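Re: your question from the hallway

Yes, I did run it. Sequences:
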Amino acid sequence: MNIQEYISSGILELYALGQLSPSEAIEVETMIAQHAEIRQELHQINLGLERYALANSITAPAIIKERLFKELPPKNISAPAVDAVKPNNFIGNLVLGGVLATALILFFNQRTKYNDLKAKYEKEKVFCDSIQNVTTSKYQFVNDIRKEGNNVVKIAATPKYANTVIYLHTNKNEKLNYLQLNNLPPLAEGQAYQLWSLQEGKDPVPMEVFKDADAFVKVGYFDATVNYAITIEKDGGSQVPNLENLVGTFKAG
Amino acid sequence: MYDAYADALFGIIFRIIKRREEAEEVLQTVFMKIWDNIDSYTDGKSTIFTWMASIARNAAIDCTRSRGIKASKVTDSFSISEFGLETKQAEKGIDINKLNEKLPEKYRLLIEKMYLEGYTQQEISDAYEIPIGTIKTRMREAINILRKELQDEKHLLYFLTSLS
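Structure:
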């Protein structure tokens, strides 16, 4: 159906005037429900009629208003007041719910932040502790090598590892040994450096195993040591040195 | 709501009943019905005034039937002043005389008889010997004129507001 033709037919005006039969009115109401344009047109018709009725107003006697307000059912008057409590409670519950929800969100948000910060703190603490340990050990190293009787012995590298630079800081008085690792040969997977104590008439005594290539390493001290040796062994060390991987030796004391 | 619409509804009721005492009773009854049935008002079908006017018109027609009030002829002329009543157009800011000037007689007659006095299109057709189709067409024209006047008032109001 053409909407404009329907509007122009005048049926909406008759509907607004209450001049249609019940079945015709239902048809119009169906059209109103289906088409916004028809709904809008009917609204404008009603406004036009309303304007005409207002223009033709007749002053109603004031007594009617007085009588009317006296006769209005009390229960209907109080009804809005009772109903008004419900929206207030509803709004109150809504506000309370909102506050609780916000509090929960803030709580979980803050707890998450707290946990994140705590984890970060633990991580930083481990890092700081490690730095402190390194600093302490270096400080200890510096103090020890400044003590009287300290000797510094450079490694006598084998031709195979000729570029190796390692210093042995040894002090007979304090019975202290430090290895200052400046330049070591690279390790293959599963290998480590191992220190040996070579003593008169005895098999090589296995000592510290380490993998750091640039550090200070405090190692053991044996009075009977004639020479110290460094070899490359399997990771974890050996009981018998692999002389094919002899990096070099130090003369003790 | 009473202050806004009571006079307009009384205008419709009185024009149908044409008796002051009964019209006042019906006006009170109409507002009681409005009070009791406001929940049944459907926004999409009509404006609130159209809904109230429909209640008022039906209540007034029922009154004339139940009280055995002799129906006046469709063609009878009608004057408010005869009953010691007055129109309220000045307070509403609407000049009925100016509005009537805009409405040609053939249109004004139809809208008065059908909308304010509650006659059916068939009764008007019979009384004035106007075909139903013509009544429908003229009624649309009449309402279009009212709508146009309403638009002009809105524009004037907007113009005056913009000056202030």
